[in-house]
Amino acid sequence: MSVVIVVKVSEGLVLAADSAATLTGRVRTPDGNFEEGVLQTFYNAKKLLQIGTDIPIGVLTWGQAYIGVRTIESLVREWEYNSGWQSLEVFREKNQDQQYSVKACANELFKHLKKAHQEEFGKIDIEQQPGLGMIVAGYSEEGFFPEVWRFVIPFDEKISNQRPDMNGKPNFGASWFGITEPIIRLHFGRDEGVIQILSEKFDISKEELHDALRSLEYQVPFAQMPLQDAIEYANYMLNVVIGRFRFVIGPELCGGQIDIAAITQREFNWISRKTWKLV
Asked: Cis peptide leading into 30, omega within 30 of 0?
């Protein structure tokens, strides 16, 4: 599983992700029976990637960590190689009359990953297919403000703008995906479990409860937040989720090193990044 976060502020974007990837399957129980469970957890999965070597666009991925025998990074790099997104130089050679854009990148990745997902899981009922979520975010070639596009395979038919402009002004803020319950508890002062319990016990609609508890939400001034503070905010929120899975009973579904990148109009900057090493 995963937890990823994207923070959009006026100075740029922050993308952040944990590094845990779980393999699930049939596990033998002490009484000799089998049930679905976690077979293994790896703590070095790459869920935050830069597109090319010098393009100010990045991707975050959550949900399914593998399609068949391939990691999501492997499939993204294959698309880069075949489509000419390895670098600005290669892109311009292959697309002489075209400017790069975040939306075009998201659309192309969506089609590439959807095809790979369909080939691997297409014979399974769609409700039973594993979900693969992706954020594609950054700056288009002549864009002043960053863009955030999202899709979830196999359930979405097209990509969607995660933070479209509101009343002609940029929509700044934070979005998180994957295992987000600890963030929601902290940020909004409630979770869906509480909403469900109160709704059933007191015969109140969930909409009424959401409205009643809205005053508990922390107010964070994202529009005025400097990029450095957005970096620290993203790191803090991911550590909240990782800490929950480290200390609460149950499988450690989130964990490992936090990868963080900050994207501006001019460049993709790694703030924290895993490297190959011997432990």
From this structure: no
- Counted domains in the chain: 1
CATH number (domain holding residue 174): 3.60.20.10
Instruction: Quick: pLDDT tens for 169-200.
Output: 999 999 999 999 999 999 999 888 999 999 99
Position 199 in a domain = no
Range(s) of the domain holding residue 261:
3-24+36-179+222-272
Rounded Cα gap, residues 34 and 48, in angstroms = 34
- Is 185 within 8 Å of 216 (Cβ atoms)? no
53 belongs to a structural domain: yes
Q: How far apart are CA 20 and CA 52, in angstroms?
A: 24
Q: Enter the pTM of the model.
A: 0.91
